[in-house]
Design goal:
The complex is a heterodimer.
Chain A lengths: L2 H16 L5 E2 H10 L7 H13 L3 E6 L7 E6 L1 H25 L4
Antiparallel strand pairs in A: 1-3, 2-3
Helix pairs in contact in A: 1-4, 2-3
Chain B lengths: L2 H17 L5 H22 L5 H8 L2 H12 L11 H25 L5 H20 L3 H7 L1 H13 L2 H9 L4 H18 L6 H19 L7 H28 L5 H5 L8 E5 L5 E2 L2 E2 L10 E4 L5 E4 L1 E2 L3 E5 L2 E5 L42 H4 L3 E5 L1
Antiparallel strand pairs in B: 1-2, 1-9, 3-6, 4-5, 7-8
The chains are: A alpha+beta, B mainly alpha.
């Protein structure tokens, strides 16, 4: 099964999840997602998702200058973001549970 | 990061910015700031291994990157805003370029025929070039037009990989060609000046702009609006020059050059024919000694020209009532009874045709047409 299709639906949730504990800039978020096992996630998709979540008011951002390389824009969860994370997390869990039940011992 | 890497990354980011150029400027700036830092970081990680190909391999083409980001961010697709007025502008921009390219080539090859159309197309192409440089996002709209996609697809199909490879090896000569192109355009402008004076200005502007266009068009496709017509015009000039040389070499050794190159009276001239009694002959068809028609071009009031060998042509007269064509013969001649004492008594209302039969038949040349059959051929103009 093509995981990229699955990812599309849950990337928001995944990005919110990796930002729950620590703020992170784009590449940071990307690394955390990949380390967490989501290898198929595209670079541009992560940046696009960050932009969308930010535009939706679920993230705040701040710029940190860097000595080597370009300055970095860090994203952090704000209150609406945390609420969304809890809410979407619940939806996901019930969804995953439902699918598990459907699959039963077959899978 | 070395400068080479820097420019390549910059090109990548420029292309990305272009692909997103239909979005609000502030948003594009944020994205390029953010994702651009990422591209730079990826490039740095590659270190010495860095090539544009490797970067593209890792991140996809700038357009693919932009499209993926666009989809994830939930921005409208670039083709969506291209509707109504804006798609009309995009269409105008695209088709003006196409027409401009065709016209630039045709104008050079034909040595400046069809002047009004050339001016119109030249104007449209200039406006299109200005538009594409001034209006943000117009290029993205043009690129999203179905006909643009069809044209680029067709071009990609007619260029098999080995042709592309051959073109790639020619790339080192590009700077030479860019300079030659500018010179050809400048020369073409001067040559064609007599035909259409505004062309000189257009040609000089095009020649100057074509110099940076060669370099810039690689990364900034807006410059195609300069470089493509420039190339078409220069190639047309080149073809015209070769054509002229070929004609000259073709005909020079032949003894009957007079007939071959001089294919009839000059376009602005006319021929009036009289019989031995001085009666004007109309609708006369002229041929040379090989039986070839002595065709010449003639422009009537409608602007359409006629290429045939029927003389005399109607005269085109411009006055208060506008343009009209007058048939008939504007003067009379008295036929000389003795060829040596010619008695010109022609009158010419236009004042230009003083060339009544003065020395049409010197007796020293018995092969001349007049003594054997006293039909006098005079040319006016």
């Amino acid at each position: 099964m093509d995981t990229s299709q699955l990812l599309k639906g849950v990337l928001d949730l995944a990005v919110l999840a990796v930002l729950r504990k620590d703020d992170g800039y784009g590449y940071d978020v990307l690394r955390r997602l990949r380390q967490g096992g989501l290898d198929g996630v595209g670079d541009a998709s992560v940046y696009g998702t960050l932009r969308r979540l930010y535009n939706a008011g679920l993230l705040t951002s701040y710029v940190v200058p860097s000595e080597e390389g370009p300055h970095r824009k860090y994203y952090s969860l704000n209150e609406p973001g945390r609420e969304r994370l809890v809410e979407s997390g619940k939806t996901w869990k019930s969804f995953a549970q439902a699918l598990d039940d459907l699959l039963g011992e077959g899978a | 990061m070395n400068t080479q890497t820097n420019t390549e990354v910059q090109h990548y980011l420029d292309a990305m910015r272009e692909a997103l150029s239909d979005l609000p400027a502030a948003e594009v700036a944020e994205i390029v700031d953010d994702a651009g830092a990422h591209v730079v970081e990826v490039a740095e990680e590659m270190g010495d291994e860095f090539t544009l190909a490797a970067l593209t391999d890792r991140l996809g083409t700038p357009r693919a990157y932009a499209d993926e980001l666009r989809a994830a961010a939930g921005y409208p697709t670039p083709s969506a805003p291209a509707s109504g007025r804006s798609s009309l502008v995009a269409r105008f921009t695209l088709w003006s370029l196409v027409a401009g390219v065709v016209m630039a080539f045709g104008f050079a090859v034909s040595r400046g025929e069809v002047e009004e159309l050339t001016l119109l197309v030249g104007l449209c192409a200039t406006v299109a070039a200005v538009l594409v440089f001034r209006q943000k996002g117009l290029l993205a709209e043009v690129a999203a037009l179905p006909e643009t996609i069809a044209i680029t697809d067709a071009l990609a199909r007619v260029q098999p990989p080995d042709v592309q490879k051959a073109l790639a090896t020619l790339r080192i000569f590009q700077p030479v060609w860019w300079i030659a192109r500018a010179l050809l355009i400048g020369a073409g402008g001067l040559v064609l000046m007599y035909r259409l004076p505004p062309v000189v200005l257009l040609a000089i502007a095009l020649a100057l702009l074509s110099l940076p266009a060669g370099v810039k068009a690689k990364t900034d496709r807006r410059w195609l609006w300069v470089s493509l017509p420039a190339t078409a015009f220069a190639l047309g000039m080149l073809l015209f020059i070769f054509g002229t040389l070929a004609t000259r070499f073709d005909h020079y050794p032949v003894s009957s050059t007079a007939v071959s190159t001089y294919n009839g009276p000059p376009a602005s001239d006319n021929i009036y024919v009289f019989d031995k009694d001085g009666k004007p002959l109309t609708d006369v068809y002229l041929y040379d000694e090989d039986g070839r028609p002595l065709d010449s071009s003639w422009y009537g009031c409608t602007g359409r020209d006629r290429d045939d060998n029927r003389y005399p042509r109607p005269r085109v007269v411009h006055d208060e009532q506008g343009c009209h064509e007058e048939g008939g013969v504007p003067f009379t001649v008295v036929m000389p009874t003795v060829p040596t004492t010619t008695a010109p008594s022609g009158t010419s209302p236009s004042g230009t045709s003083t060339a009544v039969p003065t020395t049409t038949a010197p007796p020293a040349t018995p092969s001349s047409v007049v003594p054997s059959a006293p039909t006098v051929v005079t040319t006016t103009g």
